[in-house]
């Protein structure tokens, strides 16, 4: 503990972080892409490989989930302008966004209704392909749609997929695995929402609940899975497959920007704000975007004031060797997708020289942004997803970010920027829960 103490007393940001205040942190270790890729274990060809695998599975996904038909069985979300929200942020929070503000609606991704539909589903498909090849389940050249035939589907029943989750990862892994035919066990922490457990059980998923926190659920899940040779454990903290599934977003976003005739180059920089939990989703997306847009994209993570694990790991240089509890924070937040006390070591290592910065947001603001988004755009996002909105507000109000813009010769280019709020979840939240959230938001607004 003592060495953390000296580190923290030396840093104003860390001291504020410890007090649970909102902070903005600019990464002093960020390097140009070329340098940050040196020694990196993953690269664009790994992402291309993941992309090709998703193409191979597209006919099967389309057969099981007809809502993916318009996109030919690919799971991808819309990118939309949110001009009314932009005006609202400028008016209510003193933000001055002169460029274009867009919303990336991973909240509305098919199947899982959250960003986890990228990494989680990809990982299960990768494992499935490994099994298919090992057991010669398909003839060479045969369509993966055949895996939906009853005799082939029955094969997967002998295999188990397990995962530990606070909610959304469990939903994504649980739904896709159950539909493909696997036996699925999802280990959930006590704070996981009841409706998520109910929804999983409706798919026949074995949901186990733990009194303790997320790490206990993960520990138990891993132990049970390791004891069974036919069981596969999805490891949220260390999985390269999850990460690559998220990274596929990079090239796809480029295509969407091209279709909207939005240019990204040195004179037209791109800013992206992504909510962060353990780091896999925002880290993978950032990695994918960096491969496509290089130094013209500036990525920022947003975390709850009580669970800023990635910011803490990066700012202290201790990565996963420090937890938010070590500095006296609770790790508790209404943003259940972000309630993580310790970052992924693997992701922290890659983000160290790639991430532009991070900021934290108080829970109460998540509800305000949620209501703003509903009032101005009629779009529902879950509280976790609204953390991304705070990134856009901070970038255009805080003095720390001002310095980032100056240091990177961006000030005069701000009118040409595209800023993307990466909305990570909300699509599957039942109406009654949405109503509860909205009531909380309305009360907060009345009190202020
Ligand atoms: C999981 C999740 C995140 C963050 O992803 P990590 O991989 O845990 O960093 C953000 N928002 C939502 C809604 C999520 O479910």
Question: How would you characterize the overall build of this protein?
Answer:
- It contains 19 helices and eleven strands.
- With 448 residues, it is of the alpha/beta class.
- It folds into two domains: 2-112 and 246-447, Rossmann fold (3-Layer(aba) Sandwich), CATH 3.40.50; 116-242, Rossmann fold (3-Layer(aba) Sandwich), CATH 3.40.50.1100.
- The chain has a seven-stranded mixed beta sheet with strand order 1-10-9-8-11-3-2, with helices on both faces. A four-stranded parallel beta sheet has the order 6-5-4-7, with helices on both faces.
- Helix 5 (83-93) packs across helix 16 (363-377), helix 6 crosses helix 11 (240-247) and helix 11 (240-247) crosses helix 13 (280-293).
- The longest helix is centred in the first third of the chain and has 21 residues, at 44-64.
- The radius of gyration is 21 Å and the shape is globular.
- The model has no long low-confidence stretch (mean pLDDT 94).
- Bound molecules: pyridoxal-5'-phosphate.
- Pyridoxal-5'-phosphate is lined by residues 114-116, 168, 275-282, 337-338, 340, 382, 384-385, 424-425.
- Pyridoxal-5'-phosphate (PLP) binds next to helix 13 and helix 17.
- The modification N6-(pyridoxal phosphate)lysine is found at residue 116.
- Its cofactor is pyridoxal 5'-phosphate.
